[in-house]
Amino acid sequence: MEENLPITDTLPESIAEQEKIWYGIGETAEALGVPASTLRFWEKEFDMIKPRKNKKGDRFYSKNDIAILRTVQYLTKVKGYTIQGAKTAIKTNFMKEAETANIVNTLTQIRDKLLEIKTLLK
Q1: CA distance 115 to 82
Q2: What is the rounded distance in angstroms from the CA atom of residue 87 to the CA atom of residue 75?
Q3: What are the sequence ranges of the domains in the chain?
Q4: Strand arrangement of the beta sheet that strand 59-61 belongs to
């Protein structure tokens, strides 16, 4: 997998709009819609997820880490891959999987906005 990933299109909207370099575990978990414990589990399972830790052990995720997490989330939660299957898919073709995850997320956001508009029009 490449070190410098073109990740801006694969980030959750709440993260992509910010200019920060590091995001705390709570902020990252909220943006992805998963518990912080899930992020810690994925960190143990996927060696490419390497959050920075301070002396207290608090985790801070880069935008690359978040792009990988979003792809893991898509593969495991949406496509139903096992952890091993997700590892294989990421190692085989990360960029394709990341792009697909982004497309699905964008379509989901569009659907949600359209449903919100529909509700307002009633």
Answers
A1: 31
A2: 9
A3: 8-121
A4: 23-24, 59-61, 52-53
CA of 105: how far to CAs of 5, 56, 70, 83, in Å? Answer: 18, 34, 10, 20
Separation CA 91–CA 71 (nearest Å): 12
CB neighbour list of residue 21: distance below 8 Å, 6 or more residues apart? 62, 63
CATH of domain 8-121: 1.10.1660.10
Angle subtended by helix axes 83-121 and 63-73, to nearest 10: 90
The pTM (predicted TM-score) of the whole model is 0.74
pLDDT, tens digit, 9 for 90 and up, residues 74-111: 999 989 999 999 999 888 888 888 888 888 888 888 99
Extended strands (E) in the chain: 23-24, 52-53, 59-61
